[in-house]
Amino acid sequence: MRRTPKESTDSWKKISRRALLLGGAQMALAGTLGLRMRHMQVDQADQFRLLAEENRINIRLIPPTRGRIFDRNGKVIAENEPTYRITIVREDAGEIEEVIARLSALVDLDPDELNRAMAEMKRSAPFLPITVADRVSWDAISRVAVNAPALPGVTPEVGLSRFYPQHGNFAHVAGYVGPVSERDLTRYEDPEPVLSIPRFQIGKVGVEAKFEDALRGKAGAKRVEVNAVGRVMRELDRQEGDSGADIQLTVDSGLQDYVTARLGIESASCVVMDVEKGDLLAIASAPTYDPNKFVRGISVPDYAVLRDNDHRPLASKTVQDAYPPGSTFKMVVALAALDAGLLSPDDTYWCPGHLEVGSRRFHCWKRTGHGHVNLEHSLRESCDVFYYELAMKVGIEKIAAMARKMGFGDAPDVPMSAVTAGLVPDKDWKRRERGAEWLIGDTVNASIGQGFVLSSPLQQAVMTARVATGRAVRPRLIKTIDGVEPPIEGGEDLGLNPNHLRWVRRGMYAVMNNRRGTGYRSRVDHEPYLMAGKSGTSQVLNRVVRNEDVPWEERDHALFVAYAPFEAPRIAVSVVVEHGGGGSAAAAPIARDVVLQALYGGTPPLDAYPASDRGRIEAQQERLERERRVREQEAQSRA
Fold first, then answer.
1. What is the pLDDT of residues 327-343, one digit of tens each?
2. How many CB atoms lie within 10 A of CB 485?
3. Model pTM score
4. Contact at 8 Å (CB) between 291 and 175?
């Protein structure tokens, strides 16, 4: 039917309105999309660029190079050596078991190491690299690199691992590092991200632990581009971290090696201290162990051998163990009496071989007695009765105060593990700790370094250095940190009467150089280097026994302290031989040999020893030299 002109006009108007509405809607939609696209492409460009980068770029930590440890002469004690290892990133590997199976066909994987790595993967973040094989050969690294396309997430790497070239000599001083454990992380409120890297090495004991933050340094980072399956395509940029600080110890590695060898198979310790600055020139515990075994985690059988050894090679005996000081404590009692005005060098006491105190008899080591004894005589022949009488006169409070002044009862400030404060007992201590009153018998026991009194070998050396100088010498183990020498602490005058110190030193000189002295057989026979010393024997059992009649672990401890040269003191030495018997027989010869080695800076001439000892000493020197060469050869072969 033909439309009229009016109908056509009306229809056109309707179509135009609809088209206008539809076109407007389309334009509004297009405008909205355009604005949204502009917002996303311009305003949010940085955010989406970051999301894209996160999908194709990984940021990985670069472990810092750990600072090295040197001896006082610059000889390396702890260093880093390059090692080849194979790592795997769980999120990049996909099917872990399948990838491990392919890797096992190329490289011999240790089952224990593999089990440990699998356990680490389960508790670590999926993006962290886990070491599945450490210290592998270059051939193994090459095989992995050639087969990289078939090993997603697997990366051959060159890393650094701690190495101790002197092996056992500094095990108790420098300590060792080991993989980070959950227990280690609990020491930090906010652990650094680098500590989360599995098998990352941190200090466990000794200087390595005490200076962990300084030695560790700061981690770096690198950005790597990965493809769709997570394989690293290229490194985009790298920011190196800061290496850890190098630390130089005061210890002389040559002297330390000699002392360790001289202690031999004994369960013993020795400290050599410079009396001027307090530098610890040697601080050795025997037997020792190889800290390299702990770096990557010691095996259960190897650890059991160390743990079950009755000579306790893991213990830092020089600072960790506290012993009754025995007769080496007599210098403290003498100084307390002199300082209180209760003793002069000519005062004498009668020693019949024992002293009755109440209903108890306290014996002198010489059952027949020493007769009339003055101060010099009492030290020279180590008369016990003299000090029983003297201590009852002086009282425990003055003795304790002098002991603290001489370095007992306070943990020395050295960066070693488990440093003991020892024990200086007094009336308040017994009342507080034992719930009992102090008895006169406690004072008598303390007068000869028995009873409750305890001290470490390091404290014994400090006491000897203070007697030798009259100054508050403090031990120092750290010489420099990154080339900067820390300030030397202590050294102030003790405030003791110089005459009192002179009288005590005269008694110590007689110990070594008077024919009746307890240390005369271990004297130095070279005028410029004459020693002053004091022996000590501390009982292990609360009864008098002959050491040869009881098992080794029930025998007395042998102690000896000395300083030299007598006229111009340079070094102080303390030696403790556990269950060694008498101090003059077991500990004094070691102390004499160490003194001469330190003063001569190497093997001393035979004429520095008494003529009667020279044949034995010559044989000993030859044996120690042979053993030293063997150790050097073994160290070179292991390196």
1. 999 999 999 999 999 99
2. 11
3. 0.84
4. yes
Residue the block writes with tokens 């002295």:
517
Residues 208 and 171 sit within 8 Å (Cβ to Cβ)? no
Token digits for 75? 């000889």
Strand pairing partners for 85?
134, 157
Element housing 331 (H / E): helix 330-339
Q: Say how far apart CA 622 and CA 473 lie, in whole Å.
A: 36
pLDDT (tens digit per residue) in 451-460 = 999 999 999 9
Going 122 to 127 to 128 to 131, the CA torsion angle's sign is positive
- How, if at all, do strands 478-481 and 247-249 pair? antiparallel
Nearest Cα to Cα of residue 575 among 328, 297, 320? 328
- Per-chain mean pLDDT for the chain: 88
Residues 580-603 as b or e (16 or more Cβ within 10 Å = b): bbbbbbbbbbbbbbbbbbbbeeee
Contact 563, 569 (CB under 8 A): yes
Q: Can the peptide bond before residue 610 be classed as cis, meaning omega within 30 degrees of 0?
A: no
User: Of 127, 187, 120, which Cα lies nearest the Cα of 153?
Assistant: 127
Tokens found for residue 504: 């005590």
DSSP 8-state class, residue 255: H
Is residue 483 predicted with pLDDT exceeding 80? Answer: yes
